[in-house]
Design brief:
Length: about 200
Amino acid sequence: MRTFPGIVALVALLPLAACDTAPDAQSAEAPMSGTAIEASDMLAYLEAKIDIADDKFMQLAEAIPEESYDWRPMEGVRSFREVFIHIAADNWYGGALMGIPTPDDIPVTNEGASTGVYQDQHLTKAETLQHLRRSFDYFSEALDATRDRLDTQAMLGANRITYGDLWVRLVTHMHEHLGQSIAYSRSNEIVPLWSR
């Protein structure tokens, strides 16, 4: 049985991320078996969590009126629009770090500074939805392409990590900002569709 001990503890924590109400019917239970997780179970679990984030981000990005896209709870923090573009940027960046080229019209590479250039765009709601949708589709393809290379190493800034570590970091990052987006929505009296 192949296991990834460096990320087992993190995987066990993922069900706690971005809970707005009772767990979804589609939520996967943590695939714990003794003290080890089989690689195939871990990957299926992480992919389920990415699918949940994908679906909920798209629902929220659609539900927010365009006139509210620049709303932020205070100066110095991201607006709705900036959170959505930040997620898209990191989806592109995560795949690029794993050696999957981004589309020609997406200026994000495996260099961290490229995400800043991408996030400086001021996109309309329709453009934001398109970028977010494309980034999740791309990231899903990147996961498919790397599922047999989880021990491959990459550089994240000055840190050497594996693709498996990167999968976990990206999933937790998505759910961190999903929780932020849910809080923003409720502050604007927008009830997420899945909790109505």
